[in-house]
Automatic annotation (TrEMBL):
It comes from the Bacteria. The keyword Signal applies. Residues 1-20 form the signal peptide. This is Outer membrane protein beta-barrel domain-containing protein. Keywords: Signal. The keyword Signal applies. It comes from Paraburkholderia azotifigens.
Length: 272
């Protein structure tokens, strides 16, 4: 219970945000003033995918998640921020998630478990750090809103742990039941390009649709991220409710084969 309360406190107290509900450029931004935005936010993504663990003489593919926040989340921390001057902007995003053991399925095994059919009982745990930095320039600004073109770099550091017991079946019957406990780490660096902005849905501009999309590659074969939702502008800032999706697709020899984060996010934005 204390761990769960700590997670909730860390999430709700976390950090600095301006991902797609960022500082909206206006005509007055054309001067030399810097504008900044900060916002406590809460993002509760479902995390799932497949990790490939290297074993003596072979490997094993294990499903990861979907993790349950109430049962599996041990710790979370999130922080984002942005600075804007005229048409130019700079942003950063950082997330740390730690999930405890979760029942998993081992899709294929060899090497340590032998070449025969296996019936493993497995659990995986996951710890990940995500850092994004980038910059953008406003390429379209109309009465309905604006669009920024963005470019940046995304880092993902992952530690996965597999704990499994396998019963190997041979022609002579049930064989040995080896116990496996292995942890592996992977660091991924990916560049990305994309767009972000907002589109007003009311005449006064108070209600609007924030949006974000990027595509990238590097250590990953492919990675992409998308976000949209509904926002309301106030004198002191904005309140937005969005849905965010982030995915990584690795190559055959990497720990991360697929990894997906998806879920709602509540942001309370303060401008200064």
């Amino acid at each position: 219970m204390r761990g769960h309360c700590g997670c909730i406190a860390a999430l709700t107290a976390a950090a600095i945000s301006a991902h797609a509900s960022d500082v909206a450029p206006t005509q007055s931004d054309a001067d030399d003033r810097w504008q900044f935005a900060v916002a406590p936010y809460l993002w509760l993504p479902s995390v799932d995918g497949t990790m490939r663990f290297s074993l003596p003489g072979g490997g094993a593919d294990a499903s990861t998640g979907p993790y349950d926040y109430l049962q599996n989340l041990k710790f979370a921390f999130m922080i984002q921020g942005e600075a804007r001057k005229g048409d130019w902007s700079f942003f950063a995003d950082g997330i740390y998630l730690k999930f405890g053991r979760h029942e998993s399925a081992v899709n294929s095994t060899n090497g340590l478990f032998g070449p025969h059919e296996t019936q493993p009982s497995a659990e995986t745990s996951f710890r990940g750090t995500l850092v994004e930095i980038g910059g953008g320039r406003t390429v379209m600004q109309q009465s309905w809103g604006y669009v920024d073109a963005i470019v940046g770099m995304r880092y993902l550091g992952v530690k996965g742990t597999l704990q499994a017991t396998a019963v190997s079946t041979t022609s002579a019957g049930v064989g040995a039941s080896p116990r496996l406990d292995v942890s592996q780490v992977q660091n991924m660096f990916d560049g990305f390009v994309g767009v972000r902005g907002r589109a007003s849905i009311t005449g006064d501009g108070r209600w609007y649709l924030p949006f974000y999309l990027d595509l990238g590659a590097g250590s990953s074969k492919f990675t992409w991220q998308a976000m949209t939702g509904l926002g309301y502008a106030l004198k002191w800032g904005d309140v937005t409710l969005t849905y965010r999706y982030l995915a990584f697709y690795g190559s055959d020899d990497q720990l991360v084969q697929t990894l997906r984060f998806s879920g709602p996010s509540l942001n309370v934005l303060f401008r200064f």
